[in-house]
């Protein structure tokens, strides 16, 4: 048994103690434990690893933008010990065969644990995929990939079929019929083409599915979040929608779906986040090449990278007293694990030994050149963050003294 000692996030607060780890699981949490090897972390903070329910690692098919090796390295350096990867890869994951092929491609190439989504498409065979996926993805608005399903009868059929499997359905909720396609020169134009009403309308249309296991991805608006919660849905929020509004810059680097909102909408979303009205973080890590992102705005693809930076930025906010460590752990670890039914996200006997250790003295500025995604840029350049100095995935020490030291032992959680 390995034992790590420090300030553990246990039962909702930080307490000095010891975590016992054996065969990839947490076997004990006590004041004192004696192991075959004891690692004393002093006053460093020991949190459950984060679970990111929304990444686009572009593997297979677009590995110039990212692949599972680079994406999972970035996740690890950001304290994320499990990622759920979206199906808009090439070919897209739409049936058992493309799912199995993607699984074969990725196997043995991840530093963190993972799960895959399958896309809901016309007439797809949900039953043949259900046991092997983290959940299903429904795109009600067009975005990267060609997986749009916004026709009312398609939406109805697919949600009903997928809900019967017991898996959660993550929805890109922008009603495509309300999206305009006018030429765009900047974020304001992109916002005009994809108004917040498109998000609100998409969620309103989901009222017949009240109480079903639906998750609204990358929510951008407090009213949308309240509506989704009133239907019993979970909600995800990204760092970019919390931190940026449409005035940030006119560069295509900030082009994303759903778009960055106006200042007022962003401020209300931030308040909803602070008031615990949003279920969880989801980075929507969506890397593209810097060349693509620096094209004229209209031709730049949508998507912002962020898997490596969201938890470290939030840790810095904890340090500054802007959010509590309880709120961070709930939104980054406990809630996504619970939503997708995996025994992670808590330091508790019987849970997977996924742990991230932070030294609160080690604030530093985010620098794109020090990050690990193939996207060589970050919209968070210069922001303060606290990166983990040790990360354990499934009992394996994958990162130590802030440096990668493990192997690609990440497991598919839905094999
Ligand atoms: C995502 C991508 O590039 O895959 N883009 C984005 O702007 N968020 C797709 C998505 O999640 O909509
Ligand atoms: Zn999306």
Distance between the termini: 27 Å
The SSE order reads EEEEEHEHEHEHEHHEHEHHEHHHEEEEEE
By CATH, the superfamily of the largest domain comes out as Metal-dependent hydrolases
Strand arrangement, major sheet: 3-2-1-4-13-16-17-18
| CATH architecture type of the largest domain | Alpha-Beta Barrel
What is the overall shape? globular
Helix content: 25-40%
Structure description:
The chain is an alpha/beta fold. It folds into two domains: 2-47 and 347-404, Roll (Urease, subunit C, domain 1), CATH 2.30.40; 49-339, TIM Barrel, CATH 3.20.20.140. Helices cover 27% and strands 23% of the residues. The protein has twelve helices and 18 strands. Strands 3-2-1-4-13-16-17-18 form an eight-stranded mixed beta sheet. α6 (196-204) runs parallel beside α7 (222-230). The longest helix has 15 residues, at 325-339. The protein is globular. The structure holds N-carbamoyl-L-aspartate and zinc ion (ZN). N-carbamoyl-L-aspartate is lined by residues 56, 88, 143-144, 172, 256-257, 284, 286, 302-303.
Characteristics:
globular, binds zinc ion, 27% helix, Urease, subunit C, domain 1, TIM Barrel, alpha/beta, 8-stranded mixed β-sheet, 23% strand
Structure in a nutshell:
With 415 residues, the protein is α/β, with parallel strands linked by helices. The protein is built from 12 helices and 18 strands.
Topology, element by element:
Elements: E1 2-10, E2 13-22, E3 25-30, E4 37-48, E5 50-55, H1 68-77, E6 80-85, H2 96-106, E7 113-119, H3 126-130, E8 135-139, H4 152-164, E9 168-172, H5 187-193, H6 196-204, E10 214-216, H7 222-230, E11 234-237, H8 239-243, H9 263-274, E12 280-281, H10 290-293, H11 310-319, H12 325-339, E13 355-358, E14 363-365, E15 384-386, E16 390-393, E17 396-400, E18 403-404
Parallel strand pairs: 1-4, 5-6, 6-7, 7-8, 8-9, 9-10, 10-11, 11-12
Antiparallel strand pairs: 1-2, 2-3, 4-13, 13-16, 14-15, 16-17, 17-18
Helix pairs in contact: 6-7
Bound molecules: N-carbamoyl-L-aspartate and zinc ion.
The site of zinc ion has 5 residues, from loops.
């Amino acid at each position: 048994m390995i034992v790590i000692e420090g300030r553990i996030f246990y039962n909702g607060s930080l307490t000095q103690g010891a975590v016992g780890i054996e065969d990839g699981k947490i076997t004990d949490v006590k004041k004192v434990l004696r192991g075959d090897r004891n690692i004393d972390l002093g006053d460093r903070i020991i949190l459950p690893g984060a679970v990111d329910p929304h990444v686009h690692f572009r593997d297979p098919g677009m590995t110039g933008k990212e692949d599972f090796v680079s994406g999972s390295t970035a996740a690890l350096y950001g304290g994320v010990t499990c990622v759920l990867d979206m199906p808009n890869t090439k070919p897209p994951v739409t049936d058992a065969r493309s799912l199995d092929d993607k699984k074969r491609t990725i196997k043995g190439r991840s530093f963190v644990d993972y799960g895959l989504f399958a896309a809901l498409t016309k007439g797809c065979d949900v039953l043949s995929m259900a046991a092997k996926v983290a959940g299903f993805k429904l795109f009600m608005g067009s975005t990267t990939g060609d997986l749009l399903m916004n026709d009312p009868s398609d939406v109805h059929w697919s949600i009903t079929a997928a809900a019967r499997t017991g898996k959660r359905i993550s929805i890109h909720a922008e009603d495509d019929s309300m999206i305009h396609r006018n030429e765009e020169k900047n974020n304001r134009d992109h916002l005009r083409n994809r108004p917040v009403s498109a998000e609100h309308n998409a969620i309103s249309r989901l009222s017949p599915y009240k109480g079903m296991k639906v998750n609204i991805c990358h929510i951008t608006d407090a009213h949308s979040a309240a509506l989704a919660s009133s239907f019993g849905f979970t909600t995800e929020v990204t760092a970019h929608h919390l931190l940026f509004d449409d005035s940030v810059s006119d560069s295509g680097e900030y082009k994303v779906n759903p778009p960055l909102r106006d200042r007022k909408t962003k401020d209300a979303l931030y308040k909803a986040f602070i008031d615990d009205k949003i279920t969880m973080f989801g980075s929507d890590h969506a890397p593209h090449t810097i060349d693509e992102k620096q094209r004229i705005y209209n031709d730049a693809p949508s998507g912002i990278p962020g898997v490596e930076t969201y938890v470290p930025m939030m840790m810095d906010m904890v340090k500054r007293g802007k959010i509590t460590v309880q709120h961070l752990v709930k939104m980054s670890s406990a809630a996504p694990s619970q939503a997708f039914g995996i025994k992670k996200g808590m330091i508790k006997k019987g849970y997977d030994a996924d742990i991230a250790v932070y030294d609160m003295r080690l604030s530093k500025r985010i620098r794109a050149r020090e990050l690990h995604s193939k996207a060589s840029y970050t919209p968070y350049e210069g922001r303060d963050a606290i990166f983990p100095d040790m990360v354990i995935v499934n009992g394996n020490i994958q990162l130590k003294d802030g440096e990668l030291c493990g192997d690609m032992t990440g497991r598919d959680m839905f094999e």
